[in-house]
């Protein structure tokens, strides 16, 4: 299944290079983050490797992907033009340079540079917020997806403001004269980043994507679940972050319950759409299925952990055993699944759409390697499962014979296996999508990233697409 739905307007989308450039840069951040994730448990990664790892994956891979996807699909879904293509191009430079410098400063312990690179990072994100905000302001009335995106933009402003304050805190005592401590600011920053920016965007997109690509509609049983998520979830995010910032367990606990309820509601909505699909399974839908299951598995232990101690730093992203379920199992698989359609879709529209009806052209899902998609899915599921089990501590008492490598427990071995398996899966995933751009795109990778290096005279020549095996 790879047809373009009939109810979206592709004429309003920005130039292909704008979103694709975001996606390729995001894949670079993904691979850098995965490498740090493998090296950190071995004790060979330099500086603040874990913090750099988290920022490369969340701010780099996930948020840069979100920036590219919103820049592409808000105009398409909303039937309007992006406010400024120049700002859409400039936002990536700000975020890319700022994040690369920020992560590099953490790795080499060059803390005085953190505020400067943090300011560049903030500027890039705020350009994105302004550009998308101005685009959304021209659309009325907002649908459920657009409302989620607007909320996510507001959360992003707050997250980056707190993040810059934390970066300045490495060199100046910015929290000495305010009634909050650095740890509480850090907890609020992380809460708003993951549950505010990322999951709000993911949930908003799923209302469109899960119905569009399962070719099913929300029904009367989904309506109350949607209300729980759309109304209760954002209130919960604000309350949870506010409770952590102000040190209020009561406010934090109320917010935590609403957040868990919203995640469960979305999991059921997504699961029901997948169950009622009228199309065959695709790489996109398979990864959405993993995400729906991960949401429920995360919610069960998290509800108990947050009821007992919503402000505990160990519970920032839920139960200690659920961090990878949320960040990898939910966020990672939704982003990967979405990209398995978005990247081929953009390339197909610009390369083949005007030939449709005049000559034989491939379908959207013919552009990537289906076998490699199955391999990377298996590796990513294995990696996510191993990392989740390692967090749960089930292997803690098991000794392993690699103490010379810094691996002395079963937990460390499971973490290493999970990191390697995830690395293999993400490498296959990245190779598959980059292959789509190289084989079928209208520009070379160098020309896509740096237009001054573009030497293409026209559409890239691709090999004929062979008949693909069943997904």
Features:
471 residues, two-stranded antiparallel sheet, single chain, 2 strands, disordered N terminus, globular, 69% helix
Sheet with most strands = 2 strands, antiparallel
Give me the side-by-side strand order of the main sheet: 1-2
Q: Topology as H/E string?
A: HHHHHHHHHHHEEHH
- The helix count comes to 13
Note the gap between the termini.
10 Å
What is the average per-residue confidence, as pLDDT, rounded to a whole number?
Answer: 88
Strand content: under 5%
Describe the protein.
The protein has about 475 residues and is mainly α. The chain has 13 helices and two strands, in the order H-H-H-H-H-H-H-H-H-H-H-E-E-H-H. Strands 1-2 form a two-stranded antiparallel ribbon. The protein is globular and about 70 Å long. The model is unreliable at about 1-10 and about 455-470 (pLDDT under 50).
């Amino acid at each position: 299944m790879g047809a373009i739905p009939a109810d979206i307007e592709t004429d309003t989308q920005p130039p292909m290079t704008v979103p694709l450039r975001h996606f390729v840069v995001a894949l670079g951040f993904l691979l850098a983050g995965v490498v740090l994730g493998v090296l950190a448990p071995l004790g060979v990664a330099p500086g603040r490797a874990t913090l750099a790892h988290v920022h490369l994956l969340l701010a780099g891979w996930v948020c840069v992907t979100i920036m590219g996807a919103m820049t592409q699909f808000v105009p398409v879904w909303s039937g309007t033009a992006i406010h400024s293509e120049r700002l859409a191009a400039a936002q990536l430079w700000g975020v890319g340079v700022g994040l690369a410098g920020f992560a590099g400063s953490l790795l080499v312990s060059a803390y005085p540079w953190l505020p400067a690179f943090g300011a560049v990072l903030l500027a890039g994100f705020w350009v994105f917020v302004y550009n998308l905000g101005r685009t959304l302001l021209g659309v009325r009335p907002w649908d459920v997806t657009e409302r989620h995106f607007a909320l996510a933009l507001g959360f992003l402003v707050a997250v980056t403001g707190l993040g810059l304050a934390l970066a300045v805190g490495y060199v100046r005592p910015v929290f000495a004269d305010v009634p909050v401590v650095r740890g509480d600011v850090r907890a609020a920053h992380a809460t708003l980043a993951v549950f505010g920016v990322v999951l709000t965007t993911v949930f908003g997109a799923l209302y469109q994507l899960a119905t569009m690509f399962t070719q099913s509609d929300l029904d009367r049983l989904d309506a109350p679940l949607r209300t729980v998520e759309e109304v209760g979830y954002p209130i919960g995010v604000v309350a949870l972050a506010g409770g952590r910032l102000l040190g209020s367990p009561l406010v934090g606990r109320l917010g935590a319950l609403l957040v868990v309820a919203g995640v469960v509601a979305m999991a059921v909505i997504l699961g029901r759409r997948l169950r009622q699909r009228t199309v065959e399974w695709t790489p996109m839908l398979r990864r959405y299925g993993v995400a729906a299951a991960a949401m429920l598995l995360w919610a069960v232990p998290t509800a108990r952990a947050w009821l007992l101690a919503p402000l505990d730093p160990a519970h920032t992203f839920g139960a200690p055993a659920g961090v990878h379920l949320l960040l990898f199992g939910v966020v990672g698989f939704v982003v990967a699944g979405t990209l398995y359609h978005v990247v081929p879709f953009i390339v197909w529209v610009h390369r083949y759409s005007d030939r449709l009806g005049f000559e034989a052209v491939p379908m959207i899902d013919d552009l990537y390697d289906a076998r490699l998609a199955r391999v990377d899915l298996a590796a990513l599921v294995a990696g996510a499962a191993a990392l989740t089990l390692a967090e749960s501590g089930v292997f803690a008492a098991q000794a392993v014979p690699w103490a010379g490598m810094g691996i002395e427990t079963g937990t460390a071995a499971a973490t290493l296996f999970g990191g390697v398996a995830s690395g293999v899966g993400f490498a296959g995933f990245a190779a598959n999508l980059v292959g789509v751009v190289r084989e079928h795109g209208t520009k070379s990778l160098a020309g896509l990233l740096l237009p001054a290096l573009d030497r293409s005279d026209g559409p890239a020549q691709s090999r004929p697409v062979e008949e693909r095996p069943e997904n």
